[in-house]
Amino acid sequence: MTIKTLSKISLVLAALASLSACGNTIRGIGQDTANTVNATEAAGRDVARAAQ
């Protein structure tokens, strides 16, 4: 991917995150972030197990 493509994707993701944050409270954003971290960690464990 080129830098131009990556920057466009980043801008879209940032816009989506900003729009979704408008509909949530600070507590909800914290829960969403925690869920994202948990899902990322689980995916990492799955990849690690598959690599063994």
TrEMBL record:
<feature type="signal peptide">
    <location>
        <begin position="1"/>
        <end position="23"/>
    </location>
</feature>
<protein>
    <submittedName>
        <fullName>Entericidin B</fullName>
    </submittedName>
</protein>
<keyword id="KW-0732">Signal</keyword>
